[in-house]
């Protein structure tokens, strides 16, 4: 991705993560916030009542966070390569928050 475009996206959205597919397409995503994680978790909790929603939770998270190129390009990629969209969404949600980790004190 061109540096100017990356700078523009960072100025608008803050931290950006970029994925390059093996066919050369690039997708940029803003960092997941707490609200994104809660939406993802709510979708995951529907495993018994709406399994299709739960199965697409990672894809939906990636779609919501996609800032480049455009949503239609992401939807086309998701429809042709759903595993890629799922993997990206899982990584983005796993990175939600500030990076603080909890350890149990003894």
Q: What are the key terms here?
A:
3 strands, alpha+beta, single chain, 6 helices, 56% helix, 106 residues
Secondary-structure topology with pairs:
Elements lengths: L2 H11 L2 E5 L5 E5 L3 H11 L6 H5 L1 H9 E3 L2 H10 L1 H13 L12
Antiparallel strand pairs: 1-2, 2-3
Helix pairs in contact: 2-4, 4-6, 5-6
Helical residue percent band: 55-70%
Runs with pLDDT <50, length 5+?
A: none
Note the total helix count.
Answer: 6
The total beta strand count reads 3
Mean pLDDT equals 91
| Cα distance spanning the termini | 47 Å
Which structural class do the helices and strands define? alpha+beta
Structure characterization notes:
It is a single chain. With 106 residues, the chain is an alpha+beta fold. 56% of the residues lie in helices and 12% in strands. The chain is built from six helices and three strands. Strands 1-2-3 form a three-stranded antiparallel beta sheet. Helix 2 packs antiparallel against helix 4 (57-65) and helix 5 crosses helix 6 (82-94). It is globular and about 45 Å long. The chain starts with a helix and ends in a 12-residue tail after the last helix. The mean pLDDT is 91.
């Amino acid at each position: 991705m061109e540096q100017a475009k990356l700078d523009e996206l960072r100025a608008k959205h803050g931290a950006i993560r970029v994925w390059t597919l093996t066919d050369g397409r690039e997708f940029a995503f803003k960092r997941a916030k707490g609200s994104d994680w809660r939406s993802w978790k709510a979708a995951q909790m529907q495993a018994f009542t709406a399994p299709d929603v739960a199965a697409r939770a990672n894809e939906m998270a990636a779609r919501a966070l996609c800032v480049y190129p455009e949503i239609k390009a992401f939807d086309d990629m998701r429809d042709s390569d759903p595993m890629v969209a799922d993997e990206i969404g899982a990584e983005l949600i796993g990175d939600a928050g500030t990076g603080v980790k909890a350890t149990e004190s003894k």
